[in-house]
Amino acid sequence: MINWAHRLLQPATDNTAYTVVYIPSPRRTLYSEIRRALSLIGIAQERVIDIQFPARGTVGLLIHTSYEKELRKLLAQAKLHTKDEFNPISATTIGDPTLLAKLTEDERATEARKIYQERMFNLCMRLPKKHFQVAILCHFTTLPSDNNHHVDVLYWTKFQEAHPKPTRNHSYYSYLEADSPPPTHDNHDSNDGRLYTDWFQYHNYAIQPNPKKRGKGGISLLVRPDLNVHIHHFPNKTRYTLSFKIDTYTFHGLYLPPPPPPDYNDNIQCKELLDQLEIDDHTIIFGDLNARSKLITGDHQNNSRGLHVLEPWTLTNGLLTWNGTLARGQPAFHTNAGHSIINLFISRETALIDPTLQIFDMASLKTHHHLCTLTFTTTTSWQQLPTPNATRGIKVIPDNSTIEQIERNLVSAIYNALDRSVTRTKARPKHWKKFWNDELQRKADLHEEAYKRWCQSPNIITVRAALWNKYTLICDEFTKEIRCTQRQIWKQFCSKLGNAPVNEANSTIKQIRKNRNSTHSFSHPEGPEKAVEDMPTHLSSVFGGERTSDTSLPFMDINTDDNPFLAIEIEVIINKIAPRKAPGDDHLTGAMLKPISKPLSNTL
Question: Whole-angstrom Cα distance, residue 511 to residue 327?
Fold first, then answer.
């Protein structure tokens, strides 16, 4: 450990080379045995990157060249010699009898070189740290071609294809069929993808090609628990839309990723996706379309999707983009590189009454997109759901103001005395989470204030850079404080649960598991009343027991000659049964059946 700390705290060197030291081994051994033997003679295990068996009787140790001198010294002290003359691409390294029989001497040398290069490439692919992968493969591909350890540059290209450079968190279009299920996380079920909130939620989950990386895309719909209207969620046909219906209004939430260059095919696919949407006089489309248009929204720049897709599509369907009418020229997406209007609200003009669009460009949500709200009055009133467990009207008994007034005066006097003596405590806001406190609220206010200062700062690069740096520092501190508080609350909960009685702990765990189970309910676009009417009809048609026809099927005579099992085959099977093992539930063993196998097979 001291040597490791010494290497860690030393200044970096220009030596980026690697080498393979070969030592003899009389027999086939395991990796663990080689590691154990190396540790016994004092070789640091962390300095040996990989152990290879390139040929029979040879072990290769891949190390950094800075450790080669010390490694050879330790081997010499242990009276072990190295095989410096070993050639990993020699034809003699091939030991497969099949290859030796069918390949010539030149073909064996070519095959040996290929095997060595494949072995080095697979080594780089399985190393846990990517900087090791890149450094080792770069070194061996840059060696001269006449070097025995040279690796062809084609393997470097293959490595780059397997490890592409990070791109923007957007996915390209790969449209799904109408009857195909919506894409979800490969390694997660729907419960893991749900947000921990009491709001009703509907998701079109993002795709996650690599479990170690963030997902791409994804749309979520969150509904307040006190929203007293019926919401019917339509099945997701593509991973770019999330559609639902409230009364007569149909809503389509969209997320269209930015088009990759060249974007000719993207325009065609985007047009096909928009044409699949069902549009009427009560349809509202909203979301991030990544389409920019000077004509429609007042953006300062056009892009191909805005010119060739958005403008013709809105004109053909008679749609109005409310951003251009209610907030023309006001950006909804803001970065250091610039701003744009890509978060859009679209519908026909007659669908909304007195609409207002508000863009909160001074609120930081740790994203480049600004929060946008569209408020409007519907053309028809939405049907309200009946209040669950509504109390019936109770006739109020006439109040006798004598004793009740004395009680109110006494309670008021007690509260006034307490307020003057111990002061009134500040009520905790109901919308706060369990882990939220005054300190987090203070840092959240500082976070928002720093973001507003950066947004309102003059367009001077030095001033904006300083304010942005201050904002990022406050943001990191705020995030760190939230995680620390959440961990503290979680530890307190675990400690309380561990010290609680068994029945209380079991009840708490049961409630947690119950809350995580997803519930399914039958929904109808026309509301819950229509769903209640349709469900009994459907169940009666399936389980009612009504016969579709009163005529019985004619009796068919069984042809005894048409027997798929021959007697001789049944006899062979009986003789193969284990003598002391019962093949069925009747506990008849093979020893009972074998003496009567011939007559039994004829009977069967």
Answer: 47
Question: In this structure, are residues 256 and 270 in contact, taking their beta carbons and an 8 Å threshold?
Answer: yes
Which CATH entry fits the domain spanning 200-378: 1.10.287.690, 3.40.50.2300, 3.20.20.450, 3.60.10.10?
A: 3.60.10.10
Cα separation of 201 and 223, whole Å? 6
Chain centroid offset of residue 564 CA: 53
In sequence order, what DSSP letters do the residues of 514-532 get, joined into one string?
A: HHHS-------TT-HHHHH
Question: Distance of alpha carbon 347 from its chain centroid, rounded?
Answer: 32
Mean pLDDT of the 22-33 span: 84
**Nearest residue to 84 (alpha-carbon basis) of 130, 144, 34, 19:** 19
Give the bridge partners for 384, in sequence order: 229
Amino acid type, 193: G
Lowest-confidence segment of 45-54, 187-196, 524-533 by average pLDDT: 187-196
State whether CATH 3.30.70.980 applies to domain 15-162. yes
3-state SS of 68-101 is HHHHHHHHHHCCCCCCCCCCCCCHHHCCCHHHHH
Sequence-ordered strand ranges (E) for 315-454: 320-321, 333-335, 338-340, 343-347, 352-360, 371-378
Q: Cα dist. 100→56, 88, 118, 254 in Å?
A: 15, 17, 19, 61
**Positive or negative, the Cα torsion across 39, 44, 49, 55?**
negative
CA atoms within 13 Å, Cβ hemisphere of 115: 21
Letter for the amino acid at 514? Answer: K
Low-confidence winner among 20-34, 356-370, 388-402 (lowest mean pLDDT): 388-402
Number of CB atoms found within 10 A of residue 308's CB: 19
The backbone torsions φ and ψ at residue 233, rounded to the nearest 5 degrees and listed phi first, read: -90, 125
Which tokens in the block code for residue 256? Answer: 């269209």
What pLDDT digit, counting tens, does each position of 524-559 carry? 888 888 888 888 888 888 777 665 555 555 656 655
Q: What is the average per-residue pLDDT within 120-139?
A: 85
Non-local CB neighbours of 477 within 8 Å, separated by 6+ positions: 443
Whether 15-162 shares its CATH topology with 200-378 is answered no
Each residue's pLDDT tens digit, 312-341: 999 999 999 999 999 898 888 888 778 899
Nearby residues of 420 by Cβ (< 8 Å), 6 or more positions away: none
CA–chain centroid gap for 18, Å, is 38
Q: For residue 9, is pLDDT > 80?
A: no
Buried b (16+ CB within 10 A) or exposed e, 275-297: eebebeebbbbbbbbbbbbbebb
Which residues lie below 8 Å from residue 159, measured CB to CB, with a gap of 6+?
Answer: 121, 124, 125, 133, 137
Closest CA to 68 of 25, 34, 19, 22: 19
**Would you kindly state where each structural domain of the chain is located, as residue ranges?**
15-162, 200-378, 436-498, 567-603
User: Six-digit token pair at 455?
Assistant: 């947004």
